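Extended Data, record Kinesin-like protein
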Amino acid sequence: MASNVYRNGTGSHKGAMRPLAASNSSNVKSSSFKSRIPPSSNHSPGSAPLRRCNSAGGSDGVPGRVRVSVRLRPRNAEESVADADFADCVELQPELKRLKLRKNNWDSETYEFDEVLTEFASQKRVYEVVAKPVVESVLDGYNGTVMAYGQTGTGKTFTLGRLGEEDTSARGIMVRSMEEILANVSPETDSVSVSYLQLYMESIQDLLDPANDNISIVEDPKTGDVSLPGATHVEVRDERDFMELLRTGEAHRIAANTKLNTESSRSHAILMVHVKRSVLGAEDVIPSETDKSSHFAKPPKPLVRKSKLVLVDLAGSERVHKSGSEGHMLEEAKSINLSLSALGKCINALAENSAHVPVRDSKLTRLLRDSFGGTARTSLIVTIGPSPRHRGETTSTILFGQRAMKVENMLRIKEEFDYKSLSRKLEIQLDKLIAENERQQKVFDDEVERINLEALNRVSEVERNFAGALEKERLKCQMEYMESVKKLEEKMIENQQKHGCDGFMQDKCNREGPGSSIVEDVAEVKKLLEKEIHMRKEAQEEVNKLKSQLGQCPDSGEGGGSEILKLQKALADEVRQKKKLEEEMIILRSQMLQLTFEADQMRRCLGRNGSANAYGGLDSPMSQVRDSLNGHKTPVAALFEQVGLQKILALLESEDANVRIHAVKVVANLAAEEANQERIVEAGGLTSLLVLLRSYEDENIRRVVAGAIANLAMNETNQELIMIQGGINLLSVTASRAEDPQTLRMVAGAIANLCGNDKLQTKLRSEGGIKALLGMARCGQPDVLSQVARGIANFAKCESRASTNGIKSGRSVLIDDGALPWIVQNANNDSSPIRRHIELALCHLAQHEVNAKDMISGGALWELVRISRDCSREDIRSLARRTLNLSPIFRAEMRRLRIE
Ligand code: ADP
Ligand code: MG
């Protein structure tokens, strides 16, 4: 009813007020509603331009006049009787859509309507001509109104509200409309909800919630849309729901009217059906450039149509004029009048195209604002009775209908963007994009990982190649070294053979041109060592480079952990490699120092032309000490400082036989210097050496180990340690098995040193030390024999001391163990060291009378006599003489033999 949207379609409606002759105007055109509605964009989105009305009011509406039908109720029982003699006050010409209102027997007025429904019109037909086009419009997104107007008892409720529960053909417009709507909406995308209200005395009651009895009308100031937010909206899914709802509403209506002491004909019943449908709009044209680069094609615009069907069963129209005169309470009459008369005034104003339409005068007109002069498709059915007694009412009803026919609405589709659905769709699109992004990220991560792996593989390949090259180089160095050692040994043997067996060092010293060859070897090994160091440096640089390259690899996020593990592993390999190289270096250094040491010895030997010892210390241990004290450090001592004792000792347990033997040699050399002995023993070197002696059958190892032990055995504390750790037994066993004279010399030297310890006498004998010592004499090598003799002399001296001090009694253990024959036999040995030791041993034995008889019978007396006369050493000579003189037994025997 808003005047601002009123469109006077023809401007010639006034004629409708007049009898037929004057009403032949455009407002009675027989064109159906439907033909004037644009094709639905719901079914064919692109087929017609969308009339998008977001209720803010564009100007692109479609004119749509209010359609008005008239329905005649059949005579009821009462009328059949009372009006039996009278003709009906109206005569219908349905085919002409005309109604003749009889004034009297000879005069009548004819009115034309959009539909004329006789008393025989079925409910179905009434629905189809009155409501169906409106319902279809609502389904298409337009608001719609079907309203019944008429005197009480003329069939408004019959037409609109019959439920037809027993007889479905009797169903009224409400049920049929709902049926049609429900049949056409999609439960997935659309929704239908219903409010059911009663307007009585300007107050709106909720028939679905009777407690809610003063619902206010809210108008959107922008769009002018009217809504009742306080009313109950019940979602309807099927007809059963709806019937139930209507029944509830009806029951509440009766209850409310009872309470208010009124009747339904005095109130207006309003059923509001809200239909919300989702449709897809036409796609917008998007610039093709962005289209191509974009990941998603712009989806068709989701639209939502929110239309409303309002079905109004008005209060009886008779009250407009009859109230008050029929004794109704004034207030009620005023209120009922208010809404209906306001409706009449608005329709008049609209029909006459008045400047002012008093919409705001009543709640009914406010509620129906969109239905008359608004945007809704509106169909009015006016109901009349046949009785001539109500001619006045009938006439006024017909005139109301005629005026309403002049009201032109401007239909607008209630369509807007479906932001919710659009947002849902965009969310789905976003999800898709996120998934795609994740997939691409994964591909990227995989690629990064692959590159990392490749880099690592390359690194390890380089490392492998490098390690291989290093190993080759190492083997080459070793081979060269072994060869040079072999050459040296060959030369040595050659020299020995040339110059006879004149002592180990003697041979060495007498070699032809010893200095030059060794110096060459040393230079060569030095060169190798430098090369090795250079290669190691390069390797280290390479490793550092690779490490920094790895560090620069892009961080692959969560894969970083495994990356780090991999790097750590590579690093650990690197460290192992480095350690191996270090070992290599130590070996090479020790090799070099060994050679340097030997060369040094050789040079010194040549210089002095005196006697020295390969491992030092056996015959004259102090000579080594002297050297080291001489101001400049020995090469071995230098090695000791460079490499560190622990590292050298650790190499004793190396799995590489070559490494082991070199380490033993180095330790042996170190042990030759008194200054180192204590440190070696403290660092566990002695124990390691004994373990080696116990566990290795290898003659070379045994020889050098025995040498090292011999050197350590010079020290008294070490002697005891050797004894405690089972060393005597070990040396005895080694002595019995060894064939190599050098090994035997070393073992004999070690035992000889032990023999000089007073505390070890008993143990030495009980563990087979004496027997082992004597056993070694079997080899006949002067060096070995010299050590055996020294041992026996040492032992005899200690034993003699013990006997003198009263610690020991009885015959000499040496005699018990059968040493005497060997002593006597070698007492006059060509080798002066042997001879001298034996001479001393004989003197010590002879000092105790218990031994005298055995010595005499064993032929020792003769030797003693010889010593006392011929020994080159003055001290020994006089010792022998003194001893003989002091022994009564010897003297007696000498007298007997007439020896002076
Ligand atoms: P209103 O709602 O206009 O007051 P009702 O719909 O209550 O009138 O109708 C009054 C009576 O007339 C009811 O008994 C109803 O059944 C009957 N009636 C109305 N219209 C018709 C019709 N077209 N055919 C048969 N009976 C009708
Ligand atoms: Mg009624």
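Summary. The longest helix spans residues 419-499.
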